[in-house]
What does this fold into?
Amino acid sequence: MGTPLRREESLFPSPPTDWEKRLIAEVAARSGSPERVSEANAAGRSAAVGEAAAGARPSNTHLLNSQSSPPSITIQDGIRHSYNRLLLNSDGYSGPVESPDLYQGAVAAFDWIEESGLVAWNREISDGELFLLDRIQEDAKSLHQPHPYLLANQDVLVSPRGIGTGRQERLEYRIEIPGITLAFSARESDNRQHANFYLKITGEACVLYGGLKSRTLAYAIMDSLGGHVYDSWIRRLDLCLDVPNLSVEDWIRDAFRSDHYITTATEQQERKTTGRKFSGFSVGASGTWRLQVYDKLEEVKKRPEDYQLAMQARWGGSLPTSATRIEYQIRRPWLREHVLNSTEDTLLMVPSILHLFTEVQKRPRFVFTAGPVDQKNNHQSRIPRHPEWAKVVATFRDRIETPTEPVKRLDRGGMASGKATNMAVGCVLSAAANRGALIASRQELAEQLVTLLEANDITDEEIAAKSLKKCRSKNTLQDAMDFPFGANVTGETLGTSSPDSTSTDEPF
It folds into this structure.
């Protein structure tokens, strides 16, 4: 049996102040794109922040540190507290979802963090660092491929070109780490319409390293170059729940195909494998928000081996017979509409955001029902909710509020390398056949390889240099570090200068 759910009333530890009431009313009245609090409320905001600093309860920073903490954000910053009230107001949120138990072994995590921002440059540092980076970029252009480089004690790849075409702001530098794209411009900007910073952390990086640690590394790189990200906002945020030993064919397929669900989304689509087998579904529009439920085990089989190992670790260390992912993709328009205009506020609000998206009673964005939905007579609210979906929601909410151990370094020693090995053996056998040599054992194969190396004057030094370059390009050197981002010459771990330097990471 799962642990009993904590009630969300702790989100509101005290009655709203008059200023908070005014703020909520103002935001609700504007409803569209409230980018800033009005000047009339500026004094109230300062007073609220001061009041919080004077004696408020500790903040729920479970996304930013390893301490077990309350399930929500209490008053440390008055405006964040007010946003929480707005997100979970009485008109759009019905409270906890009751479920007799939770899915065992389920893990909640970030699966995508994409943000833009504004960078202020310390020219005493950045002029020299960017000059060196320019030279590396020129080398990359001449080679027509990314060039290895060391930044913030981490191996990275410097791309020949930056990003930005058409409507996207031009950023002339692009740094790549597996699953992570960091782009920036040396120009100064204090206007969000002309951002000079971009960061994309994909699902690959979130699974391999953790989303927040990936973000920590990116900010450390910016610091090492003399750039301080003083303002940032989320463009896309994905929250996922991975449930081992739950198959999309258990009850999800029949419920979806029978239209036993209620949704506010106008777009619904079934997912199928190449063999036309049901593998999940998606609802919602990609421009605002989308829910995806799909067979994660089937998808993992198509991914690289290190990703497979990381997912296996997330599933408890062994390969399950089935696995399902429930994933919410949230875009900038939705966040802007709900007054979440900074990355830090958005990350702190993740529990509230998830509670809102998993609402099952008051105009739910999506919920499975226990039977057919009577839409003709507008009686959708009368049909009971599917007990298994209630279990999914209860598990998701519980896991996202309860931090687990951070992601551990992958053990790449057991990683299969069948394709590369077969290719290498084939090359040696072909070369031996050209020389008229018959190979009958592994010992003879190894001796033939040495003979070929000597015949082509390939020295130990050349092999060592090529091996180092290959490992750096694949970011697989781990002997000197505790975190799998590649070679670390000094033996130090991640930098501590970024805003998330105290964080543990996904799973929550």
Q: What stands out?
A: The longest strand covers residues 227-244. Residues 123-143 form the longest helix (21 residues).
